[in-house]
Every structure is written in structure tokens, then in C-alpha cells.
């Protein structure tokens, strides 16, 4: 039996379908639009679309879809062609919201007939965050691939069955693979010689079984030419999302063949350097101490265990500035050698001097393998040299500079005066009535008086000035930073007043002496630099002749009491 559907029934069915569509369209939480495919006009929009785009319904339905879709006509056609090629029923567009912000959207469109009119029914999904995450993941993946392709270390990840999931290109190279992806899915036994594969497999079992990391393990390996080398390896367990089961391991191995060979050679030489008298320190290429001998331990006061693994900086005494060490490293870099004297600090805090020779050992490629330093204690030698130097330049009784050092400082002072265009007073001072002190109280009393006079002179002069003992009871001075004749007068009066103060001898006796000072001014006698002190000496005799306890300036007739 055939049931015929009347025209009224068809209209009723269509009306029911339209009503159902209206309910679904209006109540959907997903933004939906009805679009005229001919001119792009937005015919209708549900409340979710109004909320998403930020427009009231009347305003949104007055817009054309091209006001929202920010792709050009060419870009839209390209996207539609791409969707057809990829056999997908959705499109990727960029939509603009009412506040001007742009959002990445995934649009699912289909044809729909309403009131005998063909419309496009579009469902909009915001994928902005997803796109950002995809881009971030893409960049991360690119950076990760760059790392695998360029790192010099052997980097790898293995699954629970000890099969490679990825590795660095360096590891692929030494195992004879043209690309690291060719290693994916392979076991150690498929890429390494049996003996080394066994080592790797056995050391990884506790990682999988107990979840314990393996750190800084030195293992053998063979390069692409079959040559044996050594790597320092660290491997860490990778747990599942619950942090319970080990699902793989991540490893990094660094080639330490050169260091390993150097250490082996050092073992052979151990019996030699442990018995020589010089202290020996050996560091790796990074400056970390890897060996010292007993002589160095005795020299520094530290035990071997307290030294190994540190850098030589722990011996710094503070005696040398940064330029000293810059020069040292410059010599090591340029000449592979440095020799000089270094002041170091022992464990007990005392300072000692070392005559040090540092040599650089390199590998076959010229890269630094290690540094070897030989250290000889020359503290006593330098101390003796300093004592000799002090005797050569300082007066043994008063500790003032002697005639030799005064001449050197005078030359430096005059050079500064020429540069700064300032004045200098060169003075020659003699104690008045000094001989009776020796005659009446003895030479010991005279020496004490000279020491006290020297101390008073040092207290009277400024920083940068010099007071020196020329012999007997004669002293020489340079006075600088003079701004006027009055300034000079005050300085000389201060000296005369200080010397004229009574001296008390250890026996309780009080004695008085005075001073006569001769002065020669510079640059008045610029052309007679070598005669300045002699002119001051002559002026001193003029001061004595005029009654003592005063000064006389060479080339003048003025005196001052």
C-alpha cells in the first residue's frame, strides 16, 4: 500500500523541521551564523554568536561576513582550495571581534534551505589558544631538532625496552648512521659493539628497575673509525604521568677522551713528581686542580684531599691586582708558558712567595689539555732581598729615606711639578747645637734625639713630600703643593717650631736644640736642577750665620725668625 503525502503534510513537516532548527540554532552554546552565499550578508546569528563577536543581534545581522573575516579574497579561495585538497569539511579563518581583537577560528559550513532560500549554515569554533599552543610546540620542536643536529654531546632518549626514540646527530655519526632518525627503534646491540652494548645495558637496568639516576659515569665507546674513546655519562629515569613507573631514560654523554688520556699519563708520571722537591700542581683545561704532589701540600699547608677539585684561586693572598693575572693568562695563551713570582696564602693564613713556572700541555689539535705548575718557596730569599733593598735606600737609624732615595724622589717630584706647573721647595736642614748633646750625654742620647727629630719632620710634612737623612744631623726635604709664599713660610715655621720643642732623654734630662734651614725654590732654578740641593745647603749656612733657628731662601736676602 502506498501512502501519499499531501502538499499540506509536506508543508507541515517542513514547518516542524524549521521549528526544530530554530530551537537548536537559538539555544546552542556554540556561535552559529546563517550567511547568504551570494552576497555574504549575515542573515541570522544565535545569541552565542552575538556574545562571541560582541555585537547586538540587530547590528551583527546588518554586517557582511567580509567585515568579520580578515582574510583577503585570494586568501579565502586558497584556504577553500586547500580544504578541498585535504578533504576536510572545515576552514581556518581569522575573524575580527567588535573590540578589534583578532581570533583564529575553525568554521564548519554547510548548505541549508530555509523558506525556499539556500543559505550557508556556519558553526564557529575559536582555536586561538590551540593555534598559539601549536605554534609554541612547533618552535619547541624546531629548537629541539636544532639541538639534536648541532650539539657536540651524545644526547638520547630510550624507551622501557632500551630502544632509541631520538638521539643527537653526533651519536648517529659515530654509529655509522647518516641521520639520527635512522637510530629510532634500534637497540644498543644493533648499533654498538657487543662488549660496549653490554656495559650500557647493564648500567641502565637499575635506572629502569629502581628509578635511580646514573651520574658522571665514565664509559668506553668507539668512534666511526673504530678508535676507542671515553665519555662521561649521566642518565636519568623518565616517569609516567603518575610519577610511578619508569617509561624510559634520558641520557647525555660528553667526550672526555683527552682528559682520560691525560689522567692515564699522569698516573705513569706520579712516581716522578711525588719525589721532586718543587711543589707540583696540575689542573685540567678549565683550571680545576686534578693533582698535586706532597711537596705542594707541605708548601701550602693543605692536604691533597682539600686541594683536588678546587681552582688555584683559593691560594690568593690579595697581593696581586687583576692586571697581574691578565698578564699571566695572556702569556699562557700566547706562549704556552709563564714564569714569575707569586705571593700566596697558606692554610694557616701566612703569606709565602713562590717562584712559579706554568706550562700548557695541548692535545694533537692544539687544544689545552692541562696546566702544570712548578712552585719553589722563595719567601726567605725575597725577604732577604727586601732587607737589602731597605738598607740601600733607607737610613738605618731614623728609617727615613737616605741620600740615594731622596735624589730619586726629587727627580720624580720635579717631573710632576713640570707637568702640573707647580712649585717645589728643596730644603737642607741642620740641627743647631747637636754636637754638645753627643759630648755631654753620649752618642746613644744623640741617636735618640736624631730619631725624635726625624719623627717630628715626618709629622710636619704633607703626603707627597719627602724628608730624608743625609748623614749626621743633616736632613733634606721637598715641600710640594705650595700655593703662595705665605704657604711656604707657614710650612717652614711649623718645622722650626717643632724642632725647637724640648727633647726628653730616657735619663729624664730635657735638652733643647733648634734647626737652620736653607731653601731653594723650583722652578726659579729650572736650568740648575742638579744644583738645587747644593744651593739649599749654601742657604742653610746663611741661616746659621744669621743666628740659627731660622730659614734662608737661596737668591734672596730675606730671613725669618
Automatic annotation (TrEMBL):
Q: Which Pfam families match?
A: GGDEF (PF00990), PAS_4 (PF08448), PAS_9 (PF13426)
This protein's UniProt keywords: Coiled coil
Residue ranges constituting the PAC domain according to the UniProt record = 208-268, 336-390
- The answer to whether UniProt assigns keyword Coiled coil to this entry is yes
The residues covered by the GGDEF domain are: 422-556
Source domain of life? Bacteria
- Which segments of the protein form a coiled coil according to its record? 123-150
Write down the InterPro entries for this protein, in alphabetical order.
Biofilm_reg_signaling (IPR052155), GGDEF_dom (IPR000160), Nucleotide_cyclase (IPR029787), PAC (IPR001610), PAS (IPR000014), PAS-assoc_C (IPR000700), PAS-like_dom_sf (IPR035965), PAS_4 (IPR013656)
Instruction: List each copy of the PAS domain by range.
Output: 265-311
This protein is called PAS domain S-box protein
